[in-house]
UniProtKB/TrEMBL annotation:
Pfam families: Carb_anhydrase. Residues 280-305, 830-849 are annotated as: Disordered. This is Carbonic anhydrase. InterPro entries: Alpha_CA_prokaryot-like (IPR041891), CA_dom (IPR001148), CA_dom_sf (IPR036398), Carbonic_anhydrase_a-class (IPR023561), Carbonic_anhydrase_a-class_CS (IPR018338).
Length: 1080
């Protein structure tokens, strides 16, 4: 339950006050040039940082030598501001010279940035600081008395000498803020993709973003993102501003979904040590220091020249020659030989018709694209097409050849055809060899109608940006992420060819992607409206050259073997050993062969052997498409893994890459035990989620004593590197390249690292995904993927794509099969796992709830119910009218300056370690079974009834919340209640529950009315109490219906800590609660 109007359900968002860290000053903002060492934003091509993992705040200092101060600095920001410790400073008002402005809003992946603020400034003791940008963090970066707010705005200012002054404004829920407009309007204006910029079509009243009372806390600190420069005069407003619940429901999710936010949606850097600094209320005695004097920065390196030698950018675009696309004209494609002879006589001309049956299988070679996240773009109407020149760097690396990106341009129709068929458009990304200026490489991308392409999010803006007159150039208002114009599957056809316009030079290595990218019909029409009307288009409006003869050239899928890079394995091959026992996982080595190609592929597996008929006739076949909206709630039974690091044998079976493990690794689901047999890989993923695939899926195959199989499916996506394979070269050596070869490893593989931290899973009954397709598999597909780096994925995908039995496209996955009448559960099937021919036991009834005397702490399941989305509890039943009419309701906002010094009765806790018994009642996670544990206050003994938790904290400290609050509920013999409230913040790991995260993650049930009992795991409740036990006391109520006003509240002044990992697990559990708000 949350306060009104100060705070309500909306502040119960993924409130990662201590578990996350967020962006600060935006790279996408067009700020004035920064002088001296004042670098507000890292350069757009500088080192990437994020808010989690190896590029997160804890490791920012390792990412760039110039960012070392992020760890070593003594004046880092943000900080925790303790009002009681703030020193009274000089009463200096900040003069805000803000006026309504037609602002822009940019999404740079790390924050949302307001730009277009020229002419706005502040003045502090006569010093003028110009407003550069306004941006947001969620949750707040600064904390007040260790409590956080849902969001914090930073108004970044800079004076003429480069000194920075930042005004921090906290945002809480309350009255609607007129400056933002209503929630629907705000939603339209917040860009949801990195690189997008939207413009307000009316002015924003900037003063409305500031509190009316502008008193402030002041201290000297730093930027809160790299490079963490310590030259910032911070002015954090004591008073917050409000946004309505609807406005908050728009702003906070927009911040949580930023590309570089943490996995929990956190967008703030954790607080930093104060390190002896003084925080003032008002200005410091010495005022704001001047900007430090510095040496001038080195001039930027000269850009790579577009071309040298005989290849020029003009030649590539055809600007040096006069030609057109007329079908029968003197300067049309049929007569280009008269313009440049090789256009008519060359034997390596482009484009060509690509016939898949004639394509030679080469080595699937990855293309490593090293483009910046986004580029500012100009587009020119050349009269022959649309040209997007590139002066921003960016390379493609193919087969150890580094290629500089020069430009891209668009043709209509496609120039290359596939078995004679055209696409509406084709994009050519033109690159030049870094070591040979005369060697070009072009990436050809086909465009087909489908989903809108995020590179051009606003069709109306796109139409305005495309120039319709020859020799006209327009600059896009928003940067473009070139990777949005590349297909996810970068399998390509390769051949040696030429430029497709005069001078038709035959020095081009062509790479035509097999898979197209999509644009919406509106996007395609925007381009075609211009392309079909360029000056030199054909009579039909086309700007493409007809296909040219191959003249004996070979088209490869991938690179020819002698041109592809190779890595020699250092592990000696050994003979394959057949290890399978009684569990028939796949056909024996002398049985019928299958593959993933057309001749013996999935569509005909049922015809290859009589016993494989079930591959077609079966009703419980795998894999399936998991449609999350159709998933039923199951029982959240944890999967208990007992895996130990071990050496493995890696096998190339022709159809997959397989790891064999020692038969000592087990896992348990409920009371069922399974032994790990092996794991293997598929590409792309066999299971899909809402129709979407992942690059790789790993299957961990287990069997019980009766040969029943349980398979754990783990999806793999690109992201942070997997710690299981830290050495890329070693990863390449572990997995054999040739069919039938085994590599034995000597080092121990920590393969439990191949599972996600969040172990929630989808469960259904299915089959093996390869012949014999036996339907005896209990599938558990983890909801969250794991990540591997681009380099790790490239190694594995290259090996999988080249498996002897892979499809023509390099795939080794069976298509999804019909679900039929089966049900997919989030969690375990309520009827339990199958046990061969034995009927599963009937589902048991939930255990009765405990009560103490006449007190009911959890509502009967059959009675009225409530949730945290609709807080009008008094309207649900007359018995709960006191929730609205009561005069002693809880929780409250505890304002330290308003608290009255009282007596100091001692709280005496007689707690002993107790076996863990935890219940999910849909509204909280509740620990029970504390008979014999008591607390004494002034001679009165109270029995501990239960312990439960809330996210965010229910009580506020000076308006700020904590990520978690723990309630210790006690009752005396007469039924009077005394509740201890303990706040939780991020810090050292808490040892109340055993410290290993595997156990920690498995004790919290994720299904409503599920009760877990762990007789071998004890909880030491004293570890959930702070060492210093001074408290705030008041008379209040239960914070959930029936809201009875008979509670003596004792809210501890000091919080306890949990580690970031512990906090992440708990917050994930709260998000899944049945009655939680949309923010968890």
């Amino acid at each position: 339950r949350h306060l009104a109007p100060q705070i309500s359900a909306t502040q119960a968002m993924k409130f990662v006050a201590s578990v996350a860290c967020f962006a600060a000053l935006a790279a996408a903002q067009t700020a004035p040039e920064i002088q001296g060492t004042t670098e507000v934003f890292p350069a757009s091509n500088s080192t990437l940082y994020t808010y989690e993992g190896t590029t997160g705040p804890d490791l920012w200092h390792t990412l760039d030598p110039e960012w070392e101060i992020c760890q070593s600095g003594q004046q880092q920001s943000p900080i925790n501001i303790n009002p009681a410790s703030a020193v009274e400073g000089r009463n200096v008002a900040i003069q805000f010279d803000y006026s309504p402005a037609p602002i822009t809003i940019s999404n740079n992946g790390k924050t949302l940035v307001f730009g277009g603020l020229d002419g706005n400034s502040i003045s502090i003791e006569g010093r003028v600081f110009n407003l550069i940008n306004i941006h947001f963090h969620a949750t707040s970066e600064h904390t007040i008395s260790q409590g956080s707010f849902p969001a914090e705005m930073h108004f970044v200012h800079q004076d003429a000498d480069g000194a920075l002054a930042v005004v921090g404004v906290m945002i809480r829920e309350g009255a609607e803020n007129a400056a933002f407009g209503n929630a629907d309007r705000l939603k339209q204006l917040l860009p949801d993709k990195k690189g997008l910029m939207y413009s307000f079509d009316q002015t924003m009243a900037l003063p409305g973003l500031l509190p009316n009372n502008r008193n402030y806390y002041h201290y000297m600190g730093s930027l809160t993102t790299p490079p963490c420069s310590e030259n910032v005069a911070w002015h954090v407003m004591i008073n917050s501003i409000t946004m309505s619940p609807d406005q908050v429901r728009v702003l906070i999710p927009a911040l949580q979904k930023l590309q570089y936010a943490s996995s929990l949606g956190g967008t703030n850097r954790p607080v930093q040590p104060l390190a002896g600094r003084t925080v003032y209320t008002g200005q410091s005695p010495d005022g704001i220091p001047e900007a430090p004097a510095t040496e001038p920065a080195d001039p930027p390196a000269a850009p790579i020249p577009a071309a040298t030698g005989t290849v020029t950018l003009a030649a590539i675009t055809g600007e040096e020659t006069e030609f057109d696309y007329s079908a029968d004209g003197e300067k049309g494609p049929a007569n280009w030989g008269s313009v440049t002879p090789i256009c008519g006589t060359g034997r390596k001309q482009s484009p060509i018709d690509i016939v898949p049956l004639d394509v030679e299988t080469g080595v699937i070679t990855p293309i490593e694209l090293d483009y910046a996240d986004s580029y500012p773009v100009t587009v020119t109407n050349t009269g022959k097409g649309l040209l997007f020149p590139n002066t921003n760097g960016g390379t493609a690396t193919i087969a150890n050849r580094t290629l500089n990106l020069l430009q891209f341009h668009i043709h209509s129709l496609s120039e290359h055809t596939f078995q004679g068929g055209y696409y509406p458009m084709e994009i050519h990304f033109v690159h030049q060899d870094a070591n040979d200026a005369n060697q070009l490489a072009v990436l050809g991308v086909m465009i087909q109608e489908g989903e809108a392409n995020p590179a051009f999010p606003d069709v109306n803006v796109l139409k305005q940006m495309l120039p319709t007159a020859k020799d006209t150039t327009h600059a896009f208002t928003a940067a473009i992420d070139y990777l949005d114009l590349m297909p996810a599957d970068q399998t390509f056809f390769h051949y040696e060819g030429s430029l497709t316009t005069p001078p038709c030079s035959e020095n081009v290595l062509w790479h035509v992607f097999e898979q197209p990218v999509t644009m919406s019909r509106e996007q395609i029409n925007a381009f075609l409206d211009v392309l079909q009307n360029v000056k030199y288009a054909s009579e039909e409006g086309y700007t493409h050259r007809p296909v040219q003869p191959l003249f004996g050239r070979t088209v490869y899928k991938g690179y020819p073997a002698d041109a592809a890079p190779t890595v020699q394995p250092t592990i000696p091959p050994t003979a394959v050993e057949v290890v399978n026992g009684d569990v028939m996982l796949e056909p024996s080595s002398n049985s019928t062969k299958y593959n993933y190609r057309a001749d013996k592929g999935p569509d005909v597996w049922h015809t290859l052997a009589p016993e494989w008929d079930i591959c077609m006739s079966g009703t419980e076949q795998s894999p399936i498409d998991i449609v999350t909206s159709d998933v039923a709630s199951g029982v959240n039974t944890p999967i208990m893994m007992d895996y130990a690091p071990a050496p493995v044998s890696a096998v190339n079976k022709g159809s997959t890459l397989l790891l064999n493990f020692p038969a000592t690794n087990t896992m348990a689901i409920g009371d069922r035990n399974f032994t790990l047999i092996q794991c293997h890989l598929h590409t792309t993923s066999e299971h899909t989620v809402n129709g979407a695939s992942f690059p790789i899926e790993i299957h961990f195959v287990h069997a019980d004593a009766n040969s029943n199989l349980a398979v754990l499916g783990v999806m793999v996506q690109e992201g942070a590197a997997s710690p299981v394979f830290p050495d890329i070269d070693r990863l390449n050596q572990i997995f054999p390249d040739q069919n039938g070869v085994v590599h034995e490893t000597e080092e121990l593989i920590q393969f439990e690292g191949l599972f996600p931290q969040d172990r929630s899973y989808y469960h259904y009954f299915g089959s093996l995904t390869t012949p014999p397709c036996a339907e005896n598999v209990m599938w558990h597909v983890f909801r969250e993927p794991i990540t591997m780096s681009k380099e790790q994925l490239s190694v594995l995908l290259m090996k999988l794509n080249n498996l002897a039995d892979a499809s023509e496209l390099g795939m080794s996955n069976r298509p999804v099969m019909p679900l039929g009448e089966r049900t997919v559960y989030l969690g375990q099937n309520p009827e339990g796992l199958r046990t061969g021919n034995t009927e599963p036991p009937a589902a048991g009834s939930p255990a009765p709830e405990k009560t103490a005397g006449n007190l009911v702490f959890n509502l009967p399941k059959e009675g009225p119910t409530f949730n945290y989305t609709d807080l009008d509890w008094a309207d649900i039943t007359p018995e709960w009218d006191i929730c609205a009419s009561g005069q002693e309701q809880s929780p409250i906002n505890i304002v330290h300056s308003n608290s009255v010094a009282g007596q100091a009765p001692q709280l005496t806790f007689s707690y002993t370690p107790t076996p863990l018994n935890i219940e999910n009642n849909g509204k909280s996670l509740t620990l029970k079974g504390f008979d014999g544990n008591t607390m004494e206050i002034d001679g009165t003994t109270y029995d501990l009834v239960n312990i439960h938790m809330h996210h965010n904290s229910e009580h506020l400290f000076n308006g700020g919340a904590f990520p978690l609050e723990i309630h210790f509920v006690h009752a005396d013999a007469d039924g009077n209640l005394a509740v201890i409230g303990v706040m939780v913040e991020e810090g050292a790991a808490n040892t109340a529950i055993p410290g290993d995260l595997k156990t920690f993650a498995q004790v919290f049930p994720g299904t409503k009315y599920v009760d877990y009992e762990f007789p071998t795991i004890s909880i030491d409740m004293t570890k959930w109490l702070p060492a210093a036990r001074s408290f705030y006391h008041y008379m209040g109520s239960l914070t959930t219906p029936p809201c009875s006003e008979n509670v003596k509240w004792h809210v501890m002044q000091n919080p306890i800590t949990m580690s970031r990992d512990q906090m992440s697990i708990l917050l994930s559990a709260f998000k899944a609660l049945d009655t939680a708000s949309e923010f968890g």
